[in-house]
Amino acid sequence: MEQKSSVKSFGGTQGVYSHASTALSCDMNFAVYLPEGNGPFPVLYWLSGLTCTEENFITKAGAQRVASELGLVIVAPDTSPRGEGVPDDPEGAYDFGLGAGFYLNATQEPWSKHYKMYDYSTQELPALIAKEFPVDAGRAGVFGHSMGGHGAMTIHLKNPDKFKTCSAFSPIVAPSQVPWGKKAFSNYLGSNESAWAEYDATALVAKQPSKAEILIDQGAADNFLVEQLKPQLFANAASEAGQAYVLRMQDGYDHSYYFIASFIEDHLRWHAERL
Amino acid sequence: MEQKSSVKSFGGTQGVYSHASTALSCDMNFAVYLPEGNGPFPVLYWLSGLTCTEENFITKAGAQRVASELGLVIVAPDTSPRGEGVPDDPEGAYDFGLGAGFYLNATQEPWSKHYKMYDYSTQELPALIAKEFPVDAGRAGVFGHSMGGHGAMTIHLKNPDKFKTCSAFSPIVAPSQVPWGKKAFSNYLGSNESAWAEYDATALVAKQPSKAEILIDQGAADNFLVEQLKPQLFANAASEAGQAYVLRMQDGYDHSYYFIASFIEDHLRWHAERL
User: Against a cut of 0.90, is the pTM above it?
Assistant: First the structure.
């Protein structure tokens, strides 16, 4: 692991690191906010949305202030494998390929060699973090935005003992049923839709709810709400399955980091209280 | 004036606007954060540093949370004239020309036609803001970062009744004595250094201190501290002249927006208490 940058922020340190990922067969960057003190600290994994890198969250969300106060480590990985030899959408679309790993393990050529963001996010990166940073891996949560909200919810539902708390901003809750998800899943996972259900929070919760309470914030003025996000699909399945959740429709807010920044404090306190 | 974007943020509105500037003879963008409610609100002008546009502050500083709480309007203009016909540094350097207007009125060709950021920041923009937004122009302050800290301090010292409060992050306090300032002033203002003193906070405070107390935060790990910023030059002149000020050297902090974000709340409360 190599430190690419380190900046003091709210008494702690905002770092960006690079390492050679085995799961993804490429070099990967990730960001870590480390509060002042010796730890061990509870750790939150932030999963970003389409087009993002490890930089968006740390520059725009304003999370460091509250992470410093609460003594939380926040890890923010990149959103896909990167670099030479990593295939991209043939037309360079923003919603597939680079910047759009969808936190799954691709099974289809040419994606399956590098696009293993599920293994990376759930295994390789947490192992590296536990080794290199003063975290209490027994107190870990996951949260994210849009595609990363999808990642957070599916990763929590599949690993409720490892990622004990979960929240999301504007998540893609039912990728199997919306254009972004259908495009990604058909390419990464193939046409057999039973494989898709393994990475679909709405399908997962119907099968196996977690014991946690999931917090979802959704901007009511979000341009992607009606076509891509559809939080009611998850809410309905969760209610039926007995999954505890809070879905807050936030009047007037859009899909941007201005929305995230406005409510990030609530999410950090939510996780801290439960970890 | 045209609204380019408007996003809900902490209950208020973060907007970006465009207008045809008479002072600068070009179209200019500026950002306005407007808290919830009817106002009239006190108004702060944020002046950004080298290379910035109206976007840097609103995406990275995390000011909206406290501006919302305190009921402050924050206006953040671009840092130079822009567009076709506006001359730039012949070599495209980051520290002169586009993105580097230095908040002065250029007197030398070819800069004098467009580079009138002093008139723009002190006259044209405040008049437009007073006309279009619910501000109490009698309660206005100015603050900024680096080149914009220089702008804030000189503008306050020259107009203490119009911009009543002043603070700065990592300001260029004595441009006449450092490389960034010497390059900009010799090009914009010519070789007669008596003209430079009109835009040099250290020279201005020696001649005419204000009745306000000026807050300066400076990161002690700032790479530009020793060569370009030199806050002690201002502190010495201010002490001698009887200018009240607080200079805080912040251990471990650099020149970035991570530093600004860490202390922006202090600055906003500082201004709000005094306006």
Answer: yes
Which residue from B109, B116, B111, B79 is spatially nearest to B94, judged by alpha carbons? B79
* Beta-carbon count within 10 A of B64 CB: 26
Judging by DSSP bridges, how do beta strands B73-77 and B41-47 pair with one another? Answer: parallel
Indicate the residue of B7, B254, B259 with minimum beta-carbon distance to A258: B7
Nearest to B153 by CA among B94, B209, B97: B209
Residue of A nearest to B260 (CA): A9
Mean pLDDT by 10 residues, chain B (275 residues): 98 98 98 97 98 98 98 98 96 97 98 98 98 98 98 98 98 98 98 96 98 98 98 98 98 98 98 98
What's residue A39's pLDDT? 92
Concerning whether A222 is annotated as a catalytic residue, the answer is yes
Distance CA(B41)–CA(B34), nearest Å, equals: 9
Kindly state the tokens that stand for A12: 């702690």
Contact list, A261 vs chain B (CB under 8 Å): 9-10, 62, 64-65
Decide: residue A227, CB within 10 A, 0-12 exposed, 13-18 middle, 19+ buried. Answer: exposed
Low-confidence stretches of chain A (pLDDT beneath 50): none
Using alpha carbons, list the distances in angstroms from residue B145 to A11, B117, B151: 20, 16, 9
Q: Which of A156, A153, A143 is nearest to A47 (CA)?
A: A143
Instruction: Determine how many CB atoms are found less than 10 A away from the CB of residue A107.
Output: 14
Could you tell me if A235 and A247 are in contact, meaning their C-beta atoms sit under 8 angstroms apart? yes
**Structural domain harbouring A189:** 2-274
How close does chain B come to A61, measured CA to CA in Å? 8
For the record, the structure tokens of B41 come out as: 């609100």
The pLDDT of residue A191 is 96
A65, B60: Cβ pair inside 8 Å? no
Instruction: Write down the pLDDT at residue A272.
Output: 98
Contacts of A257 in chain B (CB under 8 A): 59
Select the residue of A59, A65, A254 nearest B7 (Cβ to Cβ).
A254
ipTM: 0.93
Q: Which of B145, B156, B255, B267 is catalytic?
A: B255
Interface residue ranges in chain A relative to chain B, Cβ cutoff 8 Å? 7-11, 14, 59-60, 62, 64-65, 219, 221, 252-254, 256-259, 261-262
Residue B60: the pLDDT is: 98
Ramachandran quadrant class, A107 (left: phi over 0; alpha: psi -120 to 50; beta: rest): alpha
Within 8 A of A10 by CB-CB distance, chain B residues are 261-262
The rounded distance, in Å, linking the Cα atoms of A137 and A31 is 17
Closest CA to A209 of A160, A143, A145: A160
Angular region, A168: left φ>0, alpha ψ -120 to 50, beta rest:
beta
Give the CATH number of the domain where residue B246 resides.
3.40.50.1820
> CA–CA separation, B33 vs B80, rounded Å?
20
Strand partners, A145: A169
**Which residues of chain B are within 8 Å of residue A65 when distances are taken between CB atoms?**
62, 261-262
What is the number of domains present in chain A? 1
